[in-house]
Amino acid sequence: MEYADGGSLRNYLKENFNNLTWENKYDLAYQLACAVSCLHGEAIVHRDLHSGNVLVHQNKIKIADFGLSKRIEESSQKKYLFGIIPYIDPKKFAISNGNPYSLNEKSDIYSVGVLLWEISSGQLPFKDVDYDICLVLRIFKDQREKSVEDTPDEYVKLYTECWDGEPDNRPSINDVVQRLRANLSRSRMEIDNLKPNDNMDLNCIKNSAHGGLSRIIQDLEKINTSENIPTSKKKLVDEIVEFIFKEIDEEKNQETRERHILDNFNNNNTEIYNWLLTNQNEPNFIFLLGYFQYYGIETDENKKEAFNLFKNASEKNHILAQYYVGLCYEFGNGVVKNDKLAFDSFKKIADKEYALGQFKVGYFYYKEIGIKKNLKEAFTWYEKAAQNGNLIAMCNLGLMYKNGEGTNKDIDKAIYWYKESVEKGNQDAQKTLNKLLKIKNRKNLCKVN
């Protein structure tokens, strides 16, 4: 087993608890949840989570000692079992008629709930009572530790849901990760990257009594020794973000854009989402997790959390994130509607010569959103966006040429820009283009007559 300078979580809390802030506690809880998420993502159930086998090395959580399923179901060493009573899913102690309860992922969630309480208190659960059959009965009848004073309400709510007596009422590990991350991000927007092999000791799995893990161990070793997997994930995320950028920069129809994105990457959505939850060290990763939250892809739609993620990535100069910050302010998604801040967000992008920002600035000038109406400015920004390939900007520029808004009327230039938009894929512009061609033909007939 790899050396852990902080020892077990139990020892670490004993030695350092008085110096821990709530940010530190949230960080420990988040790392713990991420580590369990990595296991569940590989179809591994730990079954033995307690503060004695969760290790801390350089303030990083590591999980060790797999295999309680073997010990609980086959061992006669009851002393060990009683020593970890507070962490075991109470369903395991239910009297059954030949069908003993099998510990599962929801059992790990129960243990996580107890560990979250332990992190908040710095104390062993039920430290003042004997770990015996009486405690088993009390826990089975839903007795739990009381929340510690000054613990955030959201944190109490989370661990209470985790240690619910009914497994179906407990959240998934992904939900736990997401909720801890949301609370942690309020005080610290930069979250360290947590790779699966940073949180698991494969030697501990090998030495476990649980022989049924052998096939999964081999898969985990491949993950641990090969750089191809994280590299391929990063490459895939970068490709998705680039695809989204291209679709938005050209300002394709929203429904068409979302359909293209889902059609191209649908088979990987679940895998990508789970990976993103524990990999937030690059702007693209932060943005894409926000994108999933914004549109409810592989998770419930959460505009507020999406905005926080976009804001985080935008502060790292991520163009798409800056664009979505603007959208959130424009429509009041996840944040209070603010036209001025929306305009400022888009203007920053426009000044960097990106079409998606130039189009929005032109639109805001045209519609008088967050800025005084100015048709000449609208024309100028639409023209820049159109020249950079934005399909809707081409149509809007054509319309301004047709109506003489911000420029002189010019039917030929109007036709030119609508035709450009059609030829580059915007079939919605075809109807207006046909009308403009008819208008020009009528004018030509009038000249002849």
Provide a quick synopsis of the model.
With 449 residues, the chain is mainly α.
CA gyration radius, whole angstroms: 29 Å
Give the strand content: under 5%
- What's the number of helices? 22
CATH topology of the largest domain: Serine Threonine Protein Phosphatase 5, Tetratricopeptide repeat
Secondary-structure-based class equals: mainly alpha
Fourth CATH level, the homologous superfamily of the largest domain? Tetratricopeptide repeat domain
Unreliably modeled segments? 67-81, 187-229
Q: Which bin fits the share of residues in helices?
A: 55-70%
Question: How many distinct domains?
Answer: 2
Biggest sheet record: 2 strands, antiparallel
Mean pLDDT over the full residue set? 80
- Got a strand count? 2
Which strand order spans the largest sheet, edge to edge or round the barrel? 1-2
* Name given to the CATH architecture of the largest domain: Alpha Horseshoe
User: Distance N terminus to C terminus?
Assistant: 95 Å
GO molecular function: ATP binding; protein serine/threonine kinase activity
Domain Protein kinase: 1-184
Protein name: Kinase-like protein
Keywords: Kinase, Transferase
